[in-house]
Specification:
279 residues, alpha+beta, D-amino Acid Aminotransferase, Chain A, domain 1, D-amino Acid Aminotransferase, Chain A, domain 2, 9-stranded mixed sheet, 6-stranded antiparallel sheet, 28% helix, globular
Length: 279
């Protein structure tokens, strides 16, 4: 199959799938999601992504209809049905279905969605362009919730500016991007914002930290400012889809390019891990 969908035990080509209008996602975006990639029919960091999915659901008091092992088995079953092993693997759960009411539905039964699309990972060595934007999102950025309108608008603004991603900041503190984490390298140290409620604890972020420690590159999980971002030796964004990309322009100004050796070492190690795990 080319693009595969799943909803509460039923699966088929996405274009053939139907979702009931009573699903709370239609009214409130009331749910959580996670995503990763498969290569050679192997799902990258599946335990990390499933664990975060369950953590997000717990924080929103969503009772998932499957165990972690059952979900992993289902994801692998879905990937194996695809025509190719290189895929974007997306899964979400909504709080359930019922008449529109802000209160939780009485049934307490969540709906499980899965989408599998053919997509290869991006070239991690390409340079990207960014813009900055005041972070006006809600204060639960640590939950991978379906409420993504602010991220949608920020992504559109980046596209209109001829850029690839938007860097959010609250006041002068850099938080994260519309759909990525953002990090800097300064004076030989990899600096990334702490995992408080203002950023999503990215899986790719954790892989970069692990790569840095393996390579002997110091890591500092501390807040940094927009000025420090602009003056950094290198700027990187990370996500399940991009792994680790370096930026060469922010708000139309050239940035980074001052620590290419450290940057390439990190990218090589992160890509090596991805290739090894999905070989």
């Amino acid at each position: 199959m080319k693009n595969l969908g799943y909803y509460n035990g039923k699966f088929g080509e996405i274009e053939e799938m139907t979702i009931p209008m009573s699903d709370r996602v239609c009214f409130f975006g009331d749910g959580v999601y996670d995503a990763t990639y498969s290569r050679n029919y192997k799902i990258f960091s599946i335990d990390d992504h499933v664990n975060r999915f369950f953590s997000s659901a717990k924080l929103l008091e969503i009772n998932l209809p499957v165990t972690k092992e059952e979900l992993k088995d289902t994801l692998y079953d879905m990937v194996k049905k695809m025509d190719t092993g290189e895929n974007f693997v997306y899964f979400q759960a909504t709080r359930g279905s019922g008449v529109r009411n802000h209160l939780f539905p009485e049934s307490g039964k969540a709906n499980l969605w899965i989408n599998i699309f053919h997509r290869e990972i991006v070239d991690v060595y390409k340079k990207v362009k960014l813009i900055t934007m005041e972070d006006t999102r809600f204060l639960h950025c640590n939950i991978k919730t379906l409420n993504l309108i602010p991220a949608v608008i920020a992504s559109q603004r980046a596209k209109e500016a001829g850029c690839d991603e938007t860097v959010f900041h609250r006041g002068d503190r850099v938080t994260e991007c519309a759909h990525s984490n953002v990090h800097i390298i300064k004076d030989g140290t990899f600096i990334t914002a702490p995992t408080d409620n203002l950023i999503l604890p990215g899986i790719a972020r954790s892989h970069i930290i692990r790569a840095c420690k393996k390579l002997g590159i110091p890591v500092s999980e501390t807040p940094y400012t927009v000025d420090e971002l602009m003056a950094a030796d290198e700027i990187m964004i990370s996500s399940a889809g991009s792994l680790c990309l370096a930026a060469d322009k922010i708000d139309g100004k050239f940035v980074g390019g001052k620590a290419p050796d450290i940057l390439s070492k990190i990218q090589d190690e992160v890509l090596r891990e991805f290739m090894e795990e999905t070989n």
